[in-house]
Amino acid sequence: MAAQMEKSQAMKRDSIATARMLSEALPHIQRHDGSIIVIKLGGHAMSSPDAMASFARDIVMMHQCNLKPVIVHGGGPMINAMLEKLEIPTEFKDGKRISTPETVEVVEMVLSGTVNKTIVQAINDQGGRAVGLSGKDAKLLVCDQAEGGLGLVGAPKKVNAGVITAMLDGGFIPVIAPLGAGEQGQTFNVNGDTAAGAIAGGLDADRLLLLTDVAGVKDGEGDVLTNLSAEQVHAMTQSGVISGGMIPKTQTALDAISNGVRAVVILDGRADNACLLELFTDHGAGSMIRA
Ligand code: X2W
Prior knowledge:
This protein has helices at 2-31, 49-64, 76-85, 101-125, 162-169, 192-202, 230-238, 246-258, 274-280; strands spanning 36-41, 68-73, 92-93, 96-97, 130-134, 141-145, 154-159, 173-177, 179-182, 187-189, 207-212, 227-229, 263-268, 287-290. The radius of gyration is 20 Å and the shape is globular. The model has no long low-confidence stretch (mean pLDDT 94). The chain contains nine helices and 14 strands. It has an eight-stranded mixed beta sheet with strand order 5-8-2-1-11-13-14-12, with helices on both faces. Strands 7-6-9-10 form a four-stranded mixed beta sheet. The protein has a single domain (33-290), classed as Carbamate kinase (3-Layer(aba) Sandwich), CATH 3.40.1160.10. It is an alpha/beta fold. Ligand 1 is lined by residues 42-43, 74-76, 79, 96-97, 107, 153, 178, 189-192.
């Protein structure tokens, strides 16, 4: 009997905490009302069905609160696995996959096929209405061939955002695979971060959330910096404090900001409810970069 009473008391305390938390989220929900939020979901962040379900729940929650989430995904590890299965060797240069026509065929099959549909299904399983697209649909991401001998790697040149805004206006959640359409009918393989930055710029997005597998941009002592200006990011890159794998992320952030995105947040996508923590709490998550 006593044990039952204790359990019921604990449940009541949990419920009170949940109600308080919802109430505290109100000003944040109001602040983001109607905002376009582009979220880059990397292949590493899709490792488990549980992480996927948690991400999908956050997205549906955002949509339910009248934010307009747009997902741009990667899938590097899944492409690697398929290329290995097919015994096609693959190589990276400056973080980009050197892409032969044969590679691009596999990249499109994996990204537009399994990866895209897994995310679409995860969102729909949580009660959302997600629609899968790639940068080739309605030529939403027009690319030139990137420089540097990378083969069919695309450098975004123009975003035709109409198909995305039409979906948002219709109440759908677009999920976009990072392929690009060439002017001569080519299919380009585009780095997921690069595609997300370009699409966020093309949509004049309020936020770009780059979900990664690190906590954020760190200072010389290894502490995460929560607020950075574009100028500080430039200086930290020059001095070598920002280095290695963080450089493409901060570069994407700076490009997106110069294309009109209000703020870019680099955060750890492996943490539970990373998107909700960033958008709907006072504390936020990761590193925010602004002009
Ligand atoms: C990437 C596209 C996928 C991607 C690739 O082929 O792996 C280029 O490198 P993550 O999971 O976000 O790394 N494209 C040109 O970016 O996936």
